[in-house]
């Protein structure tokens, strides 16, 4: 399929190590994909679901020990340890190549090596970057066909160039003790072994589009961020774009596909999804920051997705979708997960492949779930009813506002605005979420997750903050930076803000601020809304006093947070830029 000597010699080298029985090039054609689906069904790797109810949909179960990203086994292998920094795991590249070569040796014996040429971003566009993933998993091939742009046109666009990301994945024995997800940013290389779970093996996503791309972005003057992108359409047809970063499992996909509350819908407001997980951002000729979603599909968390939380996501999954680790409704040959509806199937197989009795389900005990809490759908972007018409625009969309968010019971108000790009960078750098009862471990523990990139920055976090500051200087008409918190609780621990579609009310305040249309109150942490500027029309039980409470700054909890921020900066180490300490000092002084 190509005469590119760099590609061919690399594949020869990887094949000599892994020793597959045969090599198959993925051309992006429907015929080839269909043959692979049939093959996966014949071996039990996938189950073909009810084609009347779920056309083009399949179910897959991963190994029981292989259900999530493994941060402890994810490495950034730069020649100097300081370049990976203290937040990342590091291994010396030479040592790592040697160690993993042993695990890869003969790992594809008796198997097929698939060669997947793919593009992150629209093939041939300024934003696009190309990759080739070698894998021995049909599941990976079929997921990559949904999540990225795959095919011979990628090889044509690459031509004779050596400028592509080399990804090698082998399932090997799925041995947890020898599971590695490693990145060699200096060599444009990703190696993944002993896993079959999406986030570890769909190498275009977190590995390339965030870890390697963040490294490249710094080198080349652009940004790769863990952000959704959405467009808010006004009744006059004008559309303004927001990108937003939240830690994993904070509802990015829901926000990206938000349905406006009725009072807005009736007036003609709409929200369009450009992306739900990753944004690549570049400064445009017009001095604004432009964003594309480099992916081509959604790899979303299934549990909790329903016709209230995210009807658009649910609709997206009704065809051409691969479900992973959800409940199999065997009577109907369909799927189910906790939080889909109140009718769990009576005849069902759980994510582990065992007969599942929903009567034994106990909300407080995750081990009784039918679907794994991190079970997923891999669905095509084009099947999303609210997909932006700019999704395929190679130039991307201009960003008016950048929004950071976390899950904080008390500390962060519903929304606040930073006072400058530098201050906004600081706000992103101190982003945090508190663990909830839903997650394993202690409740209320603060995990700092700068710009939601803690697990995804392919280099030193201090240098990453510096890159943000540098980028700010290069964007004459930079987006304004905000922080939101949908998760403030009352004294009984109940969420105060309704969230979901009603988050639109906050987005509109944010966009009004970008246009200078509303005033705000300056506090120690930044600008907060005047209560009357958040529209509460049609909201049950929310008064202006509730909003005042939601946007109030809890000085004591902020003061308590300072020590934790300092500790976190100390952990990142001596590359945290002076500007961040300046901002921290300013905050401390203003808090008094
Ligand atoms: C994801 C994540 O899967 O952030 O998107 O973990
Ligand atoms: Mn994510």
Features:
alpha/beta; nine-stranded mixed beta sheet; 17 helices; binds oxalic acid
C-alpha geometry? globular
How many individual β-strands?
30
User: Average pLDDT value?
Assistant: 96
Chain oligomer state: single chain
Using only C-alpha atoms, the radius of gyration works out to: 24 Å
Described by strand count, sense and barrel closure, the largest sheet is: 9 strands, mixed
User: Unreliable runs, pLDDT <50, ≥5 residues?
Assistant: none
Please tally the helical runs, counting DSSP H or I stretches of 4 or more residues. Answer: 17
Report on this model:
The chain is of the alpha/beta class. Helices cover 29% and strands 22% of the residues. It has 17 helices and 30 strands. The strands form 6 sheets. Strands 1, 4, 5, 6, 7, 8, 9, 10 and 11 form a 9-stranded mixed β-sheet that branches. Strands 12, 13, 14, 15, 16, 17, 24, 25 and 28 form a 9-stranded mixed β-sheet that branches. A hairpin with a 5-residue loop joins strand 13 (227-233) and strand 14 (239-245). Helix 12 (421-429) runs antiparallel to helix 13 and helix 12 (421-429) packs across helix 17. The longest helix has 18 residues, at 555-572. It is globular. The mean pLDDT is 96. It binds oxalic acid and manganese (II) ion (MN). Manganese (II) ion is lined by residues 226, 248, 277.
